[in-house]
Amino acid sequence: VIFAQNNYPIVLIHGFMGWGEDEMGGYNYWGGREDYSQMLRDQGHTVFTVSVGPVSSNWERA
């Protein structure tokens, strides 16, 4: 984690063939066995994890 002089929210959106937080039986896209999004939240960051279809277009991701 890089420390910055701001408090901007962090938005994590998966890439091609990725999955969201509530999918894949508890295996985290962001960290595998670890949950990086929760680790960042525990450090006081505002984190959003976005779920889109695994083959969605960039238009849908925006």
Helix content: 10-25%
- Described by its quaternary structure, the protein is single chain
Query: How many domain modules?
Result: 1
> Beta-sheet strand percentage?
5-15%
| Shape estimate | flat
| DSSP helical segment count | 2
Structural class: alpha+beta
Average per-residue pLDDT, rounded, comes to 76
State the end-to-end distance: 24 Å
Low-confidence residue ranges: none
- Radius of gyration (CA) equals 13 Å
For the biggest sheet, the summary is: 2 strands, parallel
Strand order of the largest sheet: 1-2
What's the β-strand tally? 2
User: What's the order of the H and E elements?
Assistant: EHEH
Give a written overview of the molecule.
- With 62 residues, this protein is an alpha+beta fold.
- It has one domain (10-61).
- The protein is 18% helix and 13% strand.
- It has two helices and two strands, in the order βαβα.
- It has a two-stranded parallel sheet.
- Helix 1 (36-42) links the parallel strand 1 (10-13) and strand 2.
- The radius of gyration is 13 Å and the shape is flat.
- The two termini are 24 Å apart.
- 2% of the residues are buried.
- The mean pLDDT is 76.
- It comes from marine metagenome.
Strand and helix layout:
Layout: E1 10-13, H1 36-42, E2 47-50, H2 58-61
Parallel strand pairs: 1-2
What does this entry show, briefly?
This protein has one domain.
Features:
alpha+beta, 2 helices, 62 residues, 13% strand, two-stranded parallel sheet, 2 strands, lipid metabolism
